[in-house]
Amino acid sequence: MHKNGKNRREKVIYGVSITDIYIPSCIFNKKLSSFETIVKFLKESNNLSITQISELLDRKKQSVWRAYKNAVFKFKESFDITNF
């Protein structure tokens, strides 16, 4: 239930619910923007496509694609979520 008391519809895209995805705080760093970090994490750790990510985050596909390309360029290694 939303803070104003109204029920919010859960967003489900391709069988993936936005409420089923957990983003660990340990992946955020000074090299990437928050958006780049989230996109890179969803693409690499959750194996979501650019289209799925754009629909989940309600962003244009081109913006998500560009954020992913920038993130990979700036931060080539994978996120270490072993302690998550």
CATH class: Mainly Alpha
Overall pLDDT score? 83
Unreliable spans? none
Q: Would you identify the CATH architecture?
A: Orthogonal Bundle
Write down the domain tally.
Answer: 1
CATH domain topology? Arc Repressor Mutant, subunit A
Q: Which class best fits the helix and strand makeup?
A: mainly alpha
> What is the number of helices?
3
General shape: globular
Strand order of the largest sheet: 1-2
Largest sheet: 2 strands, antiparallel
Q: Over all CA atoms, what is the radius of gyration?
A: 14 Å
> How many beta-strand runs?
2
**Secondary-structure element string:** EEHHH
**Terminal CA distance:** 27 Å
Architecture overview:
The structure is a single chain. The protein is mainly alpha-helical and 84 residues long. The protein has one domain (24-84): Arc Repressor Mutant, subunit A. The chain is built from three helices and two strands, in the order E-E-H-H-H. The chain has helices at residues 34-45, 50-57, 61-74, and strands at residues 12-13, 16-17. A two-stranded antiparallel ribbon has the order 1-2. The two termini are 27 Å apart.
Summarize this entry quickly.
The protein has one domain (24-84): Arc Repressor Mutant, subunit A, CATH 1.10.10. The chain has 3 helices and 2 strands.
Write the layout of secondary structure elements.
Elements: E1 12-13, E2 16-17, H1 34-45, H2 50-57, H3 61-74
Antiparallel strand pairs: 1-2
Helix pairs in contact: 1-3, 2-3
